Amino acid sequence: MSREKIYVRNHYRYDAIFIFSILVIFVGLFFNSPKEIYQGYIKILTSPSHLLTDYMAVGGIGATFFNAGSLMLLASFVLWKRKQLLTGPIIAALFTLFGFSLFGKNLFNTIPITMGVYLYSKIQGVRFDTYTMNSLFGTALGPVVSYLCFGIDIPFVQGLIISYAVGILIGMLIPALSSSFLRFHQGYSLYNIGFTCGVIGLFIQGTFKSFSLEVKNVSVLSEGNITISILMYVFFICVLLIGYYLNGMKFDGLLELFKSSGRAPSDFGNIYGRGVSMINMALLGMIYTTYVMIMKQPLNGPILGGIFTIFGFGIFGKHVRNVLPILIGALIAYFLNIYDPHSVSATVTVLFATNLAPIAGEYGILAGMFAGFGHVSIVSSVGLLHGGLNLYNNGFSGGFVAATLVPVCESIKNSRFFDDKGEN
């Protein structure tokens, strides 16, 4: 069998994703009974779901895990049936979908957006596979659908029709806008569709406000559960061992991966191999889970969502070397400003600030620290623009930071104070 055929065969295999999704569903049974999970799941489906709505506080841990596991299972099954290659970006998108299904995405509010992307592909006359990333990441605006149906006082049938019509329209807009906005930050913010959704959310919030329907951020949070931390470490250790095995029982290639800037698109699985990428993913997961534990924060929906998003992007842009400067810069900002660094919102911001990791990877530690600092400074302000309707608020913020900081870094890099090799 040729090397190309082996590559294609291996990248059609969704076995590990299926197993993970099913295990998550069954893990929920350790926390709640089937009846409690069913009742909690109904509460999740009918929740307005805008930021920050922790589904563990809404429906319980068991129902939250059922929601996340079943949504990831369904999405991966559809991709498998359509013979979508399981590339690094797809893995990152699936784990982002899983993470945000712990606090904002559910089956009800993701369907119309996916339908909208599908309709757009038909109108354009191209395969839906071309817009798979848009359909997966575009569900960040799921709260718009939920809020229209369950957040305002209108009859359910009327709300269903309006919300799904708006959701389909959103899905049709995302592919058209995302490619254009990628040029805005030049790929240095890994959450490009988060920025796209932020702009769309800004227009929706403005429309709502003009009809006295302004949406305001909420804070519905749970206390988490200490048992979850044990499960997280077990999972990451398993991924590390599997990656080590797939990489020939060695760590070869890891240092080369760490030298990558991570600027999008950077499919580590394709460039460095699936095994070494899994090692990187596991290391990132353990580092940030440990950070959360040190900060004595609960492993609730939003925080777990942040960790799993970092884990997923460990095969598509993030690695240990380019995320740590962002972490340091964000922590400096929180310990100097008026906000509590030990709060859930601060922890969530620190986790998702890693979308700016390519800046540290390309321009160095100092630039990464400035990026993390700047991200913290503006993330709370941009959240007011869309009222929490865009779940990727940090992606929205990161787009502005990257668009501002990268030209400055380029100017310094190309200045007369640096030689041709970029050395001082």
Structure description:
This protein has 21 helices and no strands. The chain has helices at about 5-10, 15-25, 35-45, 55-60, 60-80, 90-100, 105-125, 130-135, 140-150, 155-185, 190-210, 225-245, 255-260, 270, 275-295, 300-310, 320-335, 345-350, 355-365, 365-385, 395-415. It is globular. It starts with a helix and ends in an 11-residue tail after the last helix. The model is unreliable at about 1-10 (pLDDT under 50).
Give the key terms.
disordered N terminus; mainly alpha; single chain
Helix-strand makeup class: mainly alpha
Radius of gyration: 21 Å
Fraction of helical residues: 55-70%
Biggest sheet statistics: none
The string of secondary-structure elements, in order, is: HHHHHHHHHHHHHHHHHHHHH
Give a summary of the structure in a few sentences.
With 424 residues, the protein is mainly α. Helix content is 70%, strand content 0%.
Spell out the blueprint of helices and strands.
Elements: H1 3-10, H2 15-27, H3 34-45, H4 55-59, H5 61-81, H6 88-100, H7 107-124, H8 132-137, H9 142-151, H10 156-185, H11 192-210, H12 226-246, H13 254-258, H14 268-272, H15 274-294, H16 301-312, H17 320-336, H18 344-352, H19 357-363, H20 365-386, H21 393-413
